[in-house]
Amino acid sequence: MNRLINVEQPGDILPAYRNTPIGDLLEYHNLDRPLDTVLNAQMLIGMCMDNRKHLRIPDNFAYIIRTGGANLRYSEFKVSYAIAVGGVRHIAVLAHSNCGMVNLKAKEESFVNGLINEAGWEPEFAQSHFMHFAPMFEIGNEIDFVLSEAARLRKRYPKITIAPLYYRVEDNQLYQLKE
Length: 179
Fold this sequence. Notes:
This protein is α/β, with parallel strands linked by helices. The chain folds into 2 domains: 4-101 and 140-177, Carbonic anhydrase (Beta-carbonic Anhydrase, Chain A); 103-138, no CATH class. 35% of the residues lie in helices and 18% in strands. The protein has helices at residues 21-31, 76-84, 108-119, 123-137, 142-156; strands at 4-5, 43-47, 62-66, 90-96, 161-168, 173-177. Strands 1-6-5-4-2-3 form a 6-stranded mixed sheet, sandwiched between helices. Strand 5 (161-168) and strand 6 (173-177) form a beta hairpin. The protein starts with a strand and ends with a strand.
């Protein structure tokens, strides 16, 4: 966890993010900055679908894509739309602590049995479904993944500022990451 950079005051925000929508996000969420009236999206936030995370931001402040592990590989058209049509120039990719997309193999039996018992799937189909999709959505370590996802997106969208951030479920705070 020594890669986490806490934001307890505006001066803690990394210079690259100060006076940008990313800095605003950190101020709104961590520092209880009063919520401004926002008419158009200022940024895109890619975050996990996990229900334990809730951001404190103004209405209309951001496009938000929620996907397992904040893995935007299969949401790139939506990212491109937010940039090309929505006009965003800043993206925050948020990993979080205790993500369910880490070590999916350990959840295989629970996943398969859940589809059989809760959704009525046939065992073979449930197993095949897991085996097909788990490798696509496994993220490994949360911090390593979000750093690599930010690097990948920077290559794809070189004019866009992309910030890898970390959400600690334990304290409901956003952290910047040492890269």
